[in-house]
Write a structure and sequence with these properties.
This is Methyltransferase domain-containing protein. The protein is α/β, with parallel strands linked by helices and about 270 residues long. It is built from nine helices and nine strands. Bound molecules: S-adenosylmethionine.
Length: about 270
């Protein structure tokens, strides 16, 4: 484990958006989430089920993969609400790992969710940029699903490339392994746009540059040297920045959000 946590300053708007994130309201029987979609997002009652299924079509398959023993890594898990959502929906969390630079979040999340000692998931302090980190070395080639939401957009392109290469190395090198996330992107062509008041400007991707981000990892992660050469197939779905997040830089109309999925496939199955 890493160093002791520093004092954390929360922006209440940030915490509120975390707790109300769509990832928490996947389940059709989660009444608060349903109300949020119905009243806040103004999604008509008769479109709720299809809307949720459309946005979260992968979620049921991730749940069933966890039941089959798949290993899940949440990079920059923060309060780990997504791992809790999986647990709430009955998934075993024995093979779930959350990592964050700031270990103070782990304690706070147990207090918030009142589940100390209940989750089998393990949480570790780790810096994704320390590629020789013991944990990242230990889990090399063993993660079936890697979730990295609201994470890549913290960084400019060079650092995003570093993150993608590190993640590509921890992914199990076989078809079907997935990396996915939700993040800020560019409405038009990819470009560097300030997203947060502090920190470096974000490289906001298009589908083309997102595919290139993952293609760039293939060599270093040795994905073509597998018995059957592997490559990434990247898909993304655009959506508007939610109204409650359009504050400061995020009010920039050039910005949108994307849900993206990078899936390992047999290289022979792609046209490249
Ligand atoms: C914006 S939050 C995203 C939280 C969560 N994934 C979500 O979707 O709600 C970004 C998280 O990444 C963590 N983080 C930032 N830099 C990191 C690094 N170098 N290595 C690991 N975690 C990092 C932060 O501490 C924070 O918890």
């Amino acid at each position: 484990m890493g160093p002791q946590s520093q004092q954390i300053q929360f922006d209440p708007r940030y915490v509120a958006s975390l707790l109300l994130d769509e990832a928490n309201i996947v389940s059709a029987n989660f009444a608060a989430g349903r109300e949020l979609l119905r009243q806040y997002s103004k999604i008509p009652e008769n479109e709720l089920a299809s809307h949720v299924a459309d946005i979260h079509h992968l979620y049921p398959s991730i749940l069933s993969r966890l039941h089959e023993g798949a290993a899940y890594l949440d990079v920059g898990c923060c309060l780990a609400q997504d791992i809790r959502k999986l647990a709430f929906d009955g998934a075993p969390t024995t093979n779930c790992i959350g990592i964050d630079l700031e270990p103070g979040f782990f304690t706070i999340s147990e207090a918030l969710f009142r589940d100390e000692g209940c989750l089998s998931a393990r949480f570790f302090q780790a810096d994704i940029f320390q590629s020789d980190d013991t944990l990242l070395t230990d889990i090399r080639g063993s993660m079936d699903v890697v979730h990295a939401s609201s994470f890549f957009h913290l960084f400019g392109l060079p650092k995003q490339r570093q993150v993608a290469r590190t993640i590509a190395k921890v992914v199990r090198p076989q078809p079907g392994s997935l990396v996915l996330g939700l993040q800020i992107a560019a409405a038009g062509e990819a470009e560097t746009i300030p997203v947060f008041s502090e920190g470096e400007p974000t490289y906001c991707h298009s589908l083309v540059t997102m595919q290139a981000l993952w293609d760039d990892t293939v060599q270093e992660a040795g994905l073509e040297e597998q018995e059957h050469a592997l490559s990434w197939k990247v898909g993304l779905k655009k959506k508007p920045v939610p109204a409650n997040m359009r504050i400061g830089h995020l009010a920039n109309p050039k910005l949108i959000m994307v849900m993206w999925i990078a899936e390992l496939v047999l290289k022979s199955s792609t046209s490249k």
